[in-house]
Design a protein that fits this description.
Order of helices and strands: EHEHHEHEHHH
Shape: globular
Helix content: 40-55%
CATH class: Alpha Beta
Low-confidence stretches: none
Structural class: alpha/beta
Strand content: 5-15%
Length: 192
């Protein structure tokens, strides 16, 4: 399934919302050329449904995750992904423990977005593979990081309003990430 794998803990709150929102954003931007998006959790129980609050918060932001079934993160899922996006630093570290070779393509959502937004090189052909390589090189080169704002808070056990806030945060970061990966959407000509 080469594509993007989103990782959190239980795969019932953050990562299903992020998976749905990222898939929607990529399909809107790239149509049939959008990479596949999946999710998994470091302590997930296979087959568990997304939390009702996650389903509602995602629905309010335009993503349908009602059919979501949790998957436990495995080395095979990690090895098959072109990019792994963790919801928190602990998820990035868990991926590294499962597959040392995945470190160069594993980031937190905020880390990856910031690394790509800080890049100075202009590439006329933006895309997933090139941008993941650039982000890995920037991180290896000591690009500044914000270790105090790297995680998306786990809303498990919190009220619906918290899930809505998390969905809003994810939607904002995902919009920035898609722009950083694929460039700005060209403005429409007047009258078009």
């Amino acid at each position: 399934m080469a594509g993007i794998l989103v990782v959190c803990s239980g795969n019932i709150c953050r990562s299903p919302i992020a998976e749905g929102l990222l898939r929607r954003a990529l399909e809107r931007r790239l149509d049939d050329a959008a990479p596949p998006v999946a999710s998994a959790g470091t302590i997930a129980v296979d087959g568990a449904p997304a939390m009702p609050e996650s389903i509602e918060a995602a629905r309010e932001r335009g993503a349908d995750i009602r059919a979501h079934a949790a998957r436990h993160l495995t080395p095979a899922l990690v090895d098959d992904a072109d990019l792994i996006v963790g919801m928190a630093a602990e998820h990035r570290e868990a991926v590294g423990r499962l597959s040392a070779g995945a470190a160069a393509r594993t980031f937190t959502l905020k880390e990856l977005t910031r690394l790509l937004e800080a890049r100075t090189a202009a590439d006329p052909e933006p895309g997933l593979e090139a941008r993941v390589g650039e982000a890995a090189a920037a991180r290896a080169g000591g690009a500044p990081a914000n270790r105090f704002d790297e995680d998306v808070v786990d809303p498990l056990g919190m009220p619906l309003e918290t899930y809505r806030a998390i969905a809003w945060e994810l939607d904002e970061w995902i919009a920035r990430l898609v722009t950083a990966l694929y460039g700005a959407v060209p403005a429409r000509a007047e009258g078009a």
